Every structure is written in C-alpha cells, then in structure tokens.
C-alpha cells in the first residue's frame, strides 16, 4: 500500500469559492458513456487489471466465518486457472486488491487469509456504515477495534448531515479524528454522493476530506439516481486536480472498488 497522506490546514475560503456547472458535467458524462470500449485482447488485459482493483466485499447481516473463508479463497483465486493459462497469465499472481467486511468479521478474514498463505489486505467499513448516524465516540471506537483486529484499511462514511447543513469545519474535524484513530491503517472516505444534494456539495465534501488527510476516496453512491452517479463520477475525477496549484495534495481516487 502507498504511504499516508498528510492532509493540510482547513481553508474555508477555498471551499466557499467552489461551484459546479451541472449542465456541463452532465454533457461530459454522456460523452464518456458513448465512448467505444476496448476490443479483443486489449479488453482481456483491461478486465484482468480491473480484477486487481477490486475490494471483494461481503456486508450482509448473515455473514459467518465460513462465508468469509469462501470470500478469501475467491480473492486469492478470482479467475479460473484454465482461463489464466489460455491468456498466459497463470504465473502473474493475480488476486483482488483486498477483502472488505464489517468490523466484527475482520478477525475471520485475517485468519482465513493467513491460513491460505496470502497477504491480501483486509479492509473494514466503519463509522456506522452505511448511514453514519451514530455518536462520534462510537464511530471512533469502531475504527480502533477494526484496526486492532487486523484491518489495514478503514472505509469510513462521512456525516451527510454536516454536508447538507454546510458545517464544513465540523466535517473536517471529524475526518481528522478518523485519520488519527486509524493509526497505521489507511483511510478511505465514502462520500455517499447520492445523498449530498448537489454536485457542488459533492465537490466541497471531497475537498474537505482531502484536506483532512484521507488516503483514498470512494463515491459511495448508496443506490441513488443513475444520472447523479454518472455526473458525480466525472466531477469527482476532475476535482483531484486543484485549481489552486499552491495547495495541491497527493490524494487520489481509490486504488480499489468494492464488489460483493
């Protein structure tokens, strides 16, 4: 995994200047959707690469240790051996990027991966996923417990109430506390863009999270409207290139994406 991001001091004057031209973003999203996909052998290469970016995920109420064990086996062997041999990729060690589970299942995942002789990282959602509507003290403790159990990445959900009411300083302070609670574990913030009300809020929340020191960010759509998902994806991809070059940060898009 990459090194941690340092973050920066909160700059509310920068946040106050953020505006998003929604019609332009929607047009650009449609253009991207209309592009021709890669073909033939290039498609196979892209698909194999995509597998290595996946957080193989289970976030079900009926998860058990046996479920987690099967998931870990699939993460180590995501593609059938005969297909890999046909592509001459059987000796490349292709695995998924990580396993993602609830905090209470982190121990099961760590144990299963160790038994399989595999060093795939374990990620854990936290901070009251998916709603984030629990007390801050509880959310911080959930992070600490997941890290103690062996999680090397923590996927936190932001407090959408703070975004919708414009409490940017409070949002920054919360994420800074999440960063501290993670210790040596990496921090990913799930923005839940479908619940942020506008593309301008998506942009502002993303910038606040980067200022606060996240390592990666995820759009975290939470099953909202398709149009908003597409446009948010485009806007989020562009906003990691700050207009103010003096305040650039190394924070990037997530190195892996959840799939269950």
List the helices and strands and how they pair.
Elements: H1 12-16, H2 22-34, H3 40-51, E1 54-57, H4 65-76, H5 81-86, E2 98-101, H6 106-115, E3 122-126, H7 136-148, E4 153-157, H8 160-164, H9 168-182, E5 186-190, H10 199-212, E6 216-218, H11 226-239, E7 257-259
Parallel strand pairs: 1-2, 1-7, 2-3, 3-4, 4-5, 5-6
Helix pairs in contact: 2-11, 4-6, 7-9, 9-10, 10-11
EC number: 4.1.2.4
Protein name: deoxyribose-phosphate aldolase
Keywords: Lyase, Schiff base
Care to describe what's here?
This protein is an alpha/beta fold and 260 residues long. Among the domains are: 73 residues, no CATH class; 104 residues, Aldolase class I (TIM Barrel). It contains 11 helices and 7 strands. It is an enzyme of class 4 (lyase). Belongs to the DeoC/FbaB aldolase family. DeoC type 2 subfamily. InterPro entries: Aldolase_TIM, DeoC, DeoC/FbaB/LacD_aldolase.
């Amino acid at each position: 995994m990459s090194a941690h991001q340092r973050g920066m001091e909160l700059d509310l004057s920068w946040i106050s200047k953020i505006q998003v031209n929604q019609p332009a973003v929607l047009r650009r999203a449609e253009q991207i959707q209309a592009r021709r996909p890669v073909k033939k052998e290039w498609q196979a290469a892209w698909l194999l690469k995509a597998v290595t970016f996946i957080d193989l995920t289970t976030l079900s109420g009926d998860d058990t240790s046996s479920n987690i064990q099967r998931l870990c086996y699939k993460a180590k062997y995501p593609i059938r051996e005969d297909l890999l041999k046909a592509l001459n990729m059987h000796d490349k060690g292709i695995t998924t990027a990580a396993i993602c589970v609830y905090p209470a299942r982190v121990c099961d995942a760590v144990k299963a991966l160790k038994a399989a002789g595999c060093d795939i990282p374990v990620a854990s959602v936290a901070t009251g996923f998916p709603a984030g509507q629990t007390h801050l003290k509880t959310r911080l403790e959930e992070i600490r417990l997941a890290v103690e159990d062996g999680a090397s990445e923590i996927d936190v959900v932001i407090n959408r109430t703070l975004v919708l009411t414009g409490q940017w300083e409070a949002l920054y302070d919360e994420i800074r506390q999440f960063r501290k609670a993670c210790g040596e574990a990496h921090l990913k913030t799930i923005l839940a863009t479908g619940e942020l009300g506008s593309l301008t809020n998506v942009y502002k929340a993303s910038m606040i999270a980067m200022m606060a020191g996240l390592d990666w960010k995820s759009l975290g759509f939470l099953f909202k409207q398709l149009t908003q998902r597409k446009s948010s994806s485009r806007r989020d991809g562009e906003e990691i290139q700050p207009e103010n070059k003096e305040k650039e940060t190394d924070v990037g898009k997530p190195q892996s994406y959840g799939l269950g």
